[in-house]
Amino acid sequence: MASQAKRTTGTVTSVRWEALDPGVGAHCRRVAALAVEVAVRLRLSEALQYWVEQTALWHHYPVTLFELDTLDRLMKDLGSNGYWSRNKSNPALPDLPDEVKRCLRAMQAPARQDQPSTVAQVVEVANLFVEKMELLPLEYRTVEQMIDELRALSEDDLFRADVIMAAASLPRARRDDLLEIVYRLPVFPTVALRALDPASDDHIGAAQLYELATSDKSLASSLVQVANSSLYSPPKAIASIRQAIAYIGLKASRKVLTASVLRPLFGTAKTGEIWKHSLIMAQFCERLAVICGLVDPKEAFLAGLVHDVGRLAMEKMTGDAAAARERMLRQGCEPMFIEKILCRFDHADLGADILQRWNFPEAIVEAVRSHHQPEQRHSPFAALLYLGEYWTGAEEDLPSAARLALALERTRITVDQMESADGRNGLLDSLIRSV
Ligand SMILES: [Fe+2]
Ligand SMILES: [Fe+2]
Ligand SMILES: [Fe+2]
After folding, report:
1. Model pLDDT, residue 424
2. Ligand number nearest to the C-alpha of 278
3. Which of 223, 242, 264 is the last residue before a domain boundary?
4. Domain boundary among 207, 236, 264
5. CA separation for the pair 57, 60 (Å, rounded)
6. Average pLDDT by stretches of 10, the chain with 435 residues
7. pTM
8. How far, in Å, is the centroid of ligand 1 from the Cα of 128?
9. Pair (258, 213) in one structural domain
């Protein structure tokens, strides 16, 4: 592991870019994570992996290293606070270890020496790769096209071919393998889903809800739990399913049961966090749908519950790809960034395939498919889910000012309205607290 390697020169400063400029800090972490993966692929020693990581973390020091207008624009989109632009020539940063400085100087050299530093080459190629990834939302290209461009650079004298090829051939996870794993998850009760389908709302009665709730202990207890929550504060504790349905009403009962039917999919400790986030999303997206009037609130609620079902599959990744994913997550990379590199697709795309197989309504399937790339759809549904991801602080993807603006425009929702939709007591709050 790179961080455990022997430190040969100097001490690495505890100051982090994040404190100065979060956009640049996050970019440097991504470069460090990818650079370490390239180093692993090249079978570099642990000591060299360590210097690759440290050089990448500081590769914008001094900031004058990469004084490019395009990078300025990119950083703005990624949430830079402007420190980057204001302090190009005089960064208030402490001294760095000699080894890092040596590598940074090698990166700065205008013409490549005959034998460029391996560490510098790895960091440069990783930086190029990450910048291309970061530009994807602005350039509407696919990851595959981007990696093809990267491969083409191996014919160029500027970069070492073996480093380029290592970056372009990181371990891969196959779509079919991941889908196969999900299809083996606790079987989704399609009968229950059909009964709870938003479209059949008008026809579902108390008797049907009662029948469904009594078919499973956890469904029953969720209903009773919500009926006794502070939102409803019954004068006397509610103990039976019938009482619970009567007290909170058919609409609310249907929503609680929909959430509870999906709960077993998110059974492990790791996926429990995803479930919690999904419950929050369901409530928030439903409110946004009511505010904007462009999306059916019942569909928005259901989409919020299942929007990240693809993340369940990603959690089941195995082999070298899983090891690389773990390392990159530890480095602080966003899940979407990692997924695109290791899979060439992401949890949104994978989740949509799963929902399609489970016969979810087409509108939900397609909104989920584009919930991190709202520019892919004209419909406001994907944009609404994007706003949900943004507001609930899921940090699943790189921030993008351009996408946020597009999603706000497409849904005609304002930031003030998002704020007003947040913080109210919600139907599922007691379930969220008990995850
Ligand atoms: Fe960079
Ligand atoms: Fe999410
Ligand atoms: Fe997501």
Report:
1. 72
2. 2
3. 264
4. 264
5. 8
6. 39 60 87 96 94 88 58 76 66 68 73 66 92 83 88 82 92 90 66 65 76 86 92 91 92 90 82 92 95 94 94 91 95 94 94 88 95 92 97 89 94 93 82 83
7. 0.87
8. 7
9. yes
Name which of 158, 97, 175, 180 is nearest 340 in CA terms. 175
| Cα of 418 from ligand 3 centre, angstroms | 18
Separation between Cα atoms, residue 168 and residue 401, nearest integer Å: 28
- CA dist 53 and 2 (Å) reads 7
Task: Write the single-letter amino acid at 71.
Answer: L
One domain for residues 260 and 344: no
Give, to the nearest 10 degrees, the angle between helix 319-330 and helix 22-41: 150
What pLDDT was estimated at residue 276?
92
Cα–Cα distance for residue pair 234/112, rounded to 1 Å: 75
Q: Is 4 exposed, middle or buried (CB count within 10 Å of its CB: 0-12, 13-18, 19+)?
A: exposed
How far apart are the CA of 309 and the centre of ligand 2, in A? Answer: 9
The reply to whether 182 and 164 lie within a common domain is no
- Please tell me whether residues 164 and 221 are part of one structural domain: no
For residues 182 and 241, state if they share a domain.
Answer: no
H/E run at residue 59: none
Alpha helices in 250-379 (DSSP H): 250-262, 269-292, 297-306, 309-315, 319-330, 335-343, 347-357, 362-369
Overall size of the chain counted in residues = 435
Give the per-residue pLDDT at 3: 41
Q: CB pairs under 8 A, 24+ apart, for 142-146?
A: 142/344, 143/340, 143/341, 143/344, 144/344
278 near 368, Cβ under 8 Å? no
Residues 198, 290 within the same domain = no
Q: For residue 269, what are the contacts with CB-CB under 8 A and spacing of at least 6? A: none
Domain holding 179, by residue range, is 173-186+267-435
Number of domains within the chain = 3
CATH of residue 274? 1.10.3210.10
Q: Ion ligand 3 — residues with CB under 5 Å?
A: 308, 396
The alpha carbon of 346 and the centre of ligand 3 are apart by a number of angstroms equal to 9
